[in-house]
Amino acid sequence: MIEELRLKNFEGYEDAEVKFTEGLNLITGRNSAGKTSLLDSILYGLFGTVPGIENKLLVSRRPSVKDADVYLRFRSPKNNSRIEISRRLEIRQGKVYSANARFLIDGKEVQVESLEDLRKKVSSLLGIGYRSFNWIVYSKQGKILEILEPKKEEMDTVLGISLLQEFSEQLDQVRKKLSRINGVDVETEYRNLVMYIIPSDEERLREVEEDIKAISKEIEEIRRELTSIESPTTPILFQKIRELEKLRSMLLEVRNTKRELLSRYAIEKIDSVINEEARIRDELRKMLDEIHELEKRINEKITENASISSKIKNLKQHLEQHQKLVKEGSGICPTCRQTINMLMMFEIISQEENEIANLEKILHQSEEELSTLKKTLENKKKDERENRERRERLYALIETFKELEGRESNITRLVNVLEAEVDSMLRSLNIDVNVRDPQLLEKLSYFIQSQEVVQAKKKKIKELDTKLSSKIKIREDLLKKLEIEKTRLNELERRAKAAGIASSLRDKIQEILEKKREAILKILASRTLDILNSITDQGFYYSIIIDPQTYLVNVHPLGLAEPIPATRIGGGHQTLIALALRLSILHFINFRHLMILDEPTYGVDQENLQLLLNHLSSLGQYMRQTIIVTHHGYGLEEADNIITIYKDSKGVSRIKQEL
User: Fold this and answer.
1) Of 64, 295, 364, 514, which is least surrounded by CB within 10 A?
2) Which residue has the higher pLDDT, 620 or 286?
3) Residue 164 lies in a domain
């Protein structure tokens, strides 16, 4: 609440002092008396500036006046502390300067760093900033209705959503800034890099890499040829290759001989011959055993036959003797000289004849068996001889094959040794040829080349080295260029991502902002209607609507089918609606301490003027202190503090106050 104001040489005032009270402070006076100047001094005292007026115009233009002073005292609605502000304007060499500003809280001076610092401290203690104060708390003459068609940014500031709007705009600026780099659109530049520039450079790099690889390979091959041609190892290599070829021919001959042997005997593998030889060997052992057995049996049979023959012979001799005795009829045995019994002799002769017949029969059978055994033995010996001869042939074949395999093994071992030596020499000479290549000598024929060919190869290497250096330089340049392009691409990606985030945040904030604005405006519109109805007590309107996009105020009067702009209704009602809306906004921002209205009845016809003033007198229920400038003589009955402004005979504004 503003309590006291002192002026010296401020606009039309020479030396003035005015006190303000709670309730309605009515400033009245004739036109040009200095009523608005008094309001200007309040603004200047609080914030150090008056909108639309240069500071030099605030200093009285009376002769010899070079400075102006404003002292303002108010109670902080924040903590009820007593705030005193003193400001001074000085004119030096045609220019105006702010000087000697003082700031006291409860009688104690507080140091301020600058006039801006002072303004911030005052705004903090007052509970409202300069911009909002100048637009919503203080209504200039003829401007009270502006709130019905306000500037969007002004309303955003007052409603506390300007920070969100500013943040949204800043994000949009960030997005726009991130969307361009060095004057080029990021998306276009990114697309060009990804689709054209980098792929083209990478393709060119691949071509250069392939050229470098091909040239390097060609140089390496020529150098390898030269190294091989000029190496002392080369003659030794050729000698060993010839030896190797000779051994390979011998090896081939041995293998062909083995194949011919197998083919001659119609066998696939020597193993079958070995198996057959073993089988025949076993068979021969069995045959020999059988032959030995047969020979044994034949010998036994011969012995047996000889024994039988001997018995037959003896029996025949005895038979002949006995028959002779019988024939001679001698009764005395000539041998033993004993008497012979003829009957017994006939029996003996008969027995001997029977025994001889039996023995001869047995002998005949035995001789037949002997003959059979001899034939069997002969056949066995024949089979044994044939098998032995076959085994000997097979054994000879096996031995021949073993000899060939031995030769093959020895030659193979020598071939392997020589191949290892030749392969080692080839590697030492950097010759990439397989040692088992059948055309090895042909492929190495380039070793036997003339000196002219060698010099031509050396010249070719120099040319290729120069070409290779050029390609390597191109590759390095391309790699640097690609590195720069990819770094730029990464930067573009980061910028695009950041721009996307900024855009997303902006959209989110804008969405929150719109929802918050819409919710606030619904509250303000409802409260405005309540305040309007309490002020007029007539209820002319169904509703008040505030457009969230434009802040334009519409009202829905009784009897009409739809809302109309508030600017289309009568002047008195426009003022009351504008006043109710201001009160609603101040109530919303929790500022219920001060309202300053400069000629709020401006534009109201004479018939509605007194009615409007009567309504204004009820502001006390919503605002602790109201300062109103009115036409001369109007509203005096409703005022709690009347401040009369007039000009004396010298044209100096004077104040007459009745408390």
Assistant:
1) 64
2) 286
3) no
